[in-house]
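Protein modeling request. Please complete all fields; requests missing the sequence field cannot be processed.
Requester role: graduate student
Desired output: 3D structure, token encoding
Chains: 1
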Amino acid sequence: MMTMPDLIIAGVHIPIEALGDHNQSYDDEAAGGTATLTLADGSQITQTRYRKLTTTLAASGWVPPGLPTLVPGAPVVLSCVGRLAVGGASRVITLPAARRGDAPLIGQATVAGRMVATAVESVVGHVATLAAVPGASSYAALYYPEFLAHVTITRDVDVGQGFGWRLTAREA
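Delivered output (172 residues):
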């Protein structure tokens, strides 16, 4: 059984007792960097100037999280606990650079519409090679993101219910 890596914010490890019941979601939309342009013939095109990964983590544990005091406007390294996947038809997969080095990659293959586990044979730089699975139509590598981010933390305390908090972060 694989254990989840620690959430790390600006070098501070947040204990699992502070995460408790948690949910982390991601969005890699072009945050503010997209415009729809109308051409002379009336057709439209979408232009993207930049893309930034954003994440929201909501948690409530039975101990306070001991969150670091963040300097407003200063980016910090955020080591996430929610996995993302990248994949395709090939078992050779290019991984994003913004991933944790202290958490394992997980290999998966799709066989007859079902996900099955497969070994990660090697990782060289940002390229992972997964073990071949007979009948596989696609492969995926699951990873934990790690990136430099602008982080905002909101704390809520429910007496008798634990300690709730929310983290929102946008890639710097």
